Amino acid sequence: MSVSGAIRPAAPVRALNLALLVLYPIAWGAPLMRAGLLPLFGLKEISVLTGLQSLWASDVFLALIVALFALVAPMLKTVCLTLIHFGAIGPRGLPALRILGKLAMADVFLIALYVTLAKGIGVGRIETAWGLYLFTFCVLASLWVSHKTQQSHENR
């Protein structure tokens, strides 16, 4: 049941995009880093969601903006890609995908995180955690899936 003129990238591209529907939420809850004031004290695990919780406590408006651009837009982009891949909306969904791709700031958020890790916090200690690698994979995979989908459309 596909729409006439549906964009059908290779099966691995579609499968990876479906996996992102599960992997993104896992990455948001996974520890990105462990941070602490001094090496003698325990390190606190920080994830995307705990970061948003902290931001929510201090600035609700900013927390909503970050949640929109770092969580909602990337997930909507992934859902939109899924609908395009399986012919539910066809090529007419590509303009929406381009807009969502520009709004999905997960890649910018990730770069900011790496800069924070590289600079350190001065007094304390920061260690990377497995969630940072998973989140990095999700962002890069999403960019690749978008590229391959666009490429499939152009090659039709």
TrEMBL record:
Stored Pfam families: PqiA
Top-level taxonomic group: Bacteria
Keyword Transmembrane helix: yes
Keywords: Membrane, Transmembrane, Transmembrane helix
Transmembrane intervals: 21-41, 61-87, 99-117, 129-146
Protein name: Paraquat-inducible protein A
Organism whose genome encodes this protein: Sulfitobacter albidus
